[in-house]
Design a protein that fits this description.
Layout (H helix, E strand, L loop, with lengths): L1 H10 L3 H12 L5 H13 L3 H14 L4 H13 L3 H7 L11 H13 L3 H14 L3 H13 L3 H9 L2 H4 L3 H13 L3 H14 L4 H13 L3 H14 L4 H13 L3 H14 L4 H13 L3 H14 L4 H13 L3 H25 L13
Helix pairs in contact: 1-2, 1-3, 2-3, 3-4, 4-5, 5-6, 5-7, 7-8, 8-9, 9-10, 9-12, 10-12, 12-13, 12-14, 13-14, 14-15, 15-16, 16-17, 17-18, 18-19, 18-20, 19-20, 20-21
């Protein structure tokens, strides 16, 4: 009776009334649904802290309840606590009857925590239990993150007849085709996607990347500029334009694009790295070190920054610092190569720069 009454109050947007009813029962731990509804009422009432508290209490009592685990994980993800979200899913086991929303939340958490094996397992179950375009693309996206673009191409090509007029489907397929260096196919699919939806940032951005690979720089620049108009807060688009200007030896415009990339996201490491390279060319080695340190601070895995910094320190006559950076660079490079072999066995020939 209490659950039914609380559900009715939630439907009527009487959130505090629902909270008052449910809190009476929340101390008894008699039914997991009490806490799910209570968390929903707190969330709708604007109190995410109490929503998280209710779900955490329920998760302690019912750790294998996927509804509670997924809801609590979502709360943690909203707060930026990926590790807590992952820990919440330690007993998360989906079946064919698990609601799709809970499977999707599980995949989001696993991807954020770089746990691609369980992400793939959940995505495969979702795809089998709820066959649809969203679940198909969910699985394709996980496989892409694993570097399995050939598998993605096979998976999606089999469904082209059913979903070939979906821009999202075409964009996802084109990204894997691009990774496989099937640039003509990727270009055709992206142009089709844009014909269906010319307001797609992702389609214009990826088409720019494909056109660069086909040495059509001017048209690539046009696509990137269109992408910027559609999504001006994406730093990677300015960065790609900067690289075009670098190839044209137009340093002024390159610097301008890099500054715009950092204005969009002042944590965007590739832009700091490229600024450092420019400053080294201008013999401003101390300034270059500052930029390269920022690149490493915001992305400790960016090999090029260590390489350039070692050269900058050597140019400044600071041999000890140069040697220390060389050691870090060598260790990172070896670790990245091992990771590449472990994650993408049999794909050592893939260009490291091909991943987006």
């Amino acid at each position: 009776m209490a659950l039914g009454k609380a559900s009715g109050l939630l439907e009527q947007a009487q959130y505090q009334g629902a909270v008052n009813i449910l809190e009476t029962f929340s101390k008894t731990k008699c039914d997991a649904r009490i806490y799910l509804l209570l968390a929903a009422a707190h969330e709708a009432n604007g109190d995410s802290g109490k929503a998280e508290e209710a779900l955490a209490l329920a998760h302690t009592a019912w750790p294998a309840n996927t509804s509670i685990a997924a809801s609590l994980a979502r709360e943690y993800m909203n707060g930026g606590h990926v590790d807590k979200a992952l820990q919440t899913l330690s007993d998360f086991h989906v079946t064919a009857r698990t609601p799709l929303q809970e499977m999707q939340e599980g995949v989001i958490v696993y991807i954020a925590a770089h746990r691609l094996v369980p992400a793939q397992a959940v995505a495969e179950t979702a795809c089998k239990s709820y066959p649809s375009l969203p679940t198909l693309l969910l699985l394709a996206n996980v496989l892409q993150l694993e570097g399995r673009y050939k598998d993605v191409n096979r998976l999606l090509e089999d469904q082209r007849k059913a979903f070939g007029d979906s821009p999202t489907f075409l964009i996802t397929l084109a990204e894997s085709e691009s990774d496989a260096m099937l640039f003509d196919h990727a270009r055709a699919d992206l142009e089709h996607a844009i014909a269906l939806d010319n307001k797609s940032y992702q389609a214009h951005y990826l088409l720019g990347t494909v056109l660069i690979a086909q040495s059509e720089t001017d048209r690539a620049e046009s696509e990137y500029r269109t992408a910027i108009q559609l999504a001006p807060n994406q730093p990677r688009t300015y960065y790609q334009l900067a690289l075009i200007f670098r190839d044209k030896q137009d340093e002024a415009n390159e610097e301008s694009m890099l500054k715009q990339a950092l204005a969009a996201d002042d944590h965007y490491a590739p832009a700091y790295c490229e600024m450092g390279r420019i400053l080294m060319g201008q013999h401003r080695l101390a300034d270059a070190v500052t930029q390269l340190n920022l690149a490493i601070q915001y992305n400790p895995q960016i090999e090029q920054a260590y390489y350039l910094m070692a050269r900058a320190y050597a140019g400044l006559g600071q041999k000890d610092k140069a040697d220390a950076i060389v050691k870090r660079y060598t260790a990172l490079r070896a670790a990245n190569r091992r990771s590449s072999v472990d994650t993408h066995p049999g794909q050592l020939g893939v260009d490291d720069g091909a991943r987006k």
